[in-house]
Write a structure and sequence with these properties.
The relative contact order is 0.06. The two termini are about 25 Å apart. The longest helix is centred in the N-terminal third of the chain and has 33 residues. The protein is mostly helical. Helix 9 packs antiparallel against helix 10 and helix 15 packs antiparallel against helix 16. It contains 20 helices and no strands.
Length: about 425
């Protein structure tokens, strides 16, 4: 997949209710009238409890029928009386504007009242609000506290989110070991995202002993639940023969399942296999189609490979203009090879206005971000371009490169 240029400048290639119990034993010596009064009070309390339970069940039934107006009317008095389930449901209705006017602040208030009573679902939702900064001041520390309360009640999604916070050191001390512990608790309950992340940890040896075999097991459990990224990673392990025998056809099978769900990694990898003829007959047109699907989703590697197709006319009509467009999109994501090739196009005025200063700028950025032999290629191209520049122009290009790098490739052109 390496594109050759007809000049001394070379191109780089890319080769997841209990009612209160009344003590009536001590009342045996009380006058008959008082016993009658107590009995009557007991009946009233019992009827109220049954009525509340019936109202709650009717409200839940209304939810299932999508009758949100009725559900909101039934949940509100129960919530105001302290019924935790009604409070949690009412929060959801306010959050979504179902049966009531949408109101984030009221939703947060009902989530909090339910969470403070120990409702695990509300605790999890409150954690999400703090993590995302929705309706409350963003705070990973607060999020971790509410996630932990729900996680301690075995809410798998809360266990997973708590694992995410530990993995990233957000609101808690960074710890892959602690992240892995929470991922495993969620994974053991069947949470596909946690199973995938546990697979990643085993593949990379983060917080657990490195093991491709263990990674395969966790990826497969998540992949069987149609977790697209787990399917892609399982395909990668088949393609590399890591943790199981190398099998390109099996890899393609998993890539296709993930690609059909829109997973860009799988789409990109299918492009690679078609371009190389691995597990399928070599087909540059199919490679280009899969690269384009991934590139349209912002995958920098796919954008670069699609640019190479256009640069060399492989599977697509040759077009330096299209090559330049895709090189630029990848380059602005920090893809060093794309930066290098974009510099070459500017130097030769191919598909782009000839601009040796901008060419030198992109090649300078590419040298800083390249590795291995790509460094040599970028330096060679940079040196060739410098022959056409004055010292002042080189200084200008270097200043442009500095600004480009400091802006994370935003202020480059």
């Amino acid at each position: 997949m390496q594109g050759a240029k007809p000049s001394t400048i070379s191109m780089s290639g890319r080769c997841l209710c209990g009612a209160p119990v009344l003590d009536v034993l001590g009342m045996l010596k009380v006058r008959t009238l008082m016993l009658g009064v107590l009995f009557a009070l007991f009946l009233v309390a019992a009827c109220a409890t049954v009525s509340a339970a019936d109202s709650y069940e009717d409200a839940v039934s209304a939810i299932h029928r999508d009758d949100y107006d009725l559900a909101a009317r039934l949940f509100r008095p129960l919530a105001e009386q302290g019924h935790v389930g009604a409070q949690s449901f009412l929060a959801v209705l306010y959050a979504n504007g179902q049966g009531v006017l949408q109101n984030d602040e009221i939703a947060e208030q009902w989530y909090r009242r339910a969470a403070q009573q120990g409702d695990a679902a509300a605790q999890f939702q409150l954690g999400l609000l703090y993590a995302k900064g929705h309706w409350v001041a963003q705070s990973y520390a607060e999020a971790s506290q509410w996630y932990r309360r729900a996680a301690d009640q075995r809410v798998a999604m809360a266990q997973f989110q708590l694992g995410e916070l530990y993995a990233n050191g957000q609101g808690v001390p960074q710890s892959y070991e602690e992240a892995g512990r929470w991922y495993r608790l969620a994974a053991d309950q069947g949470d596909a995202s946690a199973q995938f992340q546990l697979g990643v940890f085993y593949e990379n040896g983060q917080g657990v002993p490195q093991s491709h075999e263990e990674a395969v097991q966790w990826y497969r459990r998540a992949a069987d639940q149609e977790h697209a990224r787990a399917q892609s990673h399982l395909g990668l392990l088949y393609a590399r023969g890591q943790g199981l025998p190398k099998d390109y056809r099996a890899a393609i099978g998993w890539y296709r399942r993930a690609a059909q769900q829109g997973d860009a990694l799988a789409q990109f990898q299918l492009g690679v296999l078609y371009a190389n003829g691995q597990g399928v007959p070599r087909n540059y047109e199919m490679a280009g189609q899969w690269y384009r699907r991934a590139a349209d989703q912002g995958d920098a590697g796919a954008q670069f490979n699609l640019a190479v197709r256009y640069d060399n006319g492989q599977g697509v009509a040759q077009s330096y203009t299209e090559a330049g467009r895709w090189y630029r999109r990848a380059a602005r994501q920090g893809h060093a090879r794309a930066q290098s090739n974009l510099g070459v196009l500017y130097a030769g005025g191919q598909g782009l206005p000839k601009d040796v200063i901008r060419a030198y700028m992109w090649l300078t950025v590419a040298v800083a971000g390249s590795k291995g032999d790509d460094v040599k290629t970028a330096i060679m191209n940079q040196t060739a371009v410098a022959l056409d520049l004055l010292p002042a122009q080189i200084l200008q290009a270097q200043e442009m490169a500095r600004r480009c790098q400091e802006s994370q490739f935003v202020q480059c052109e």
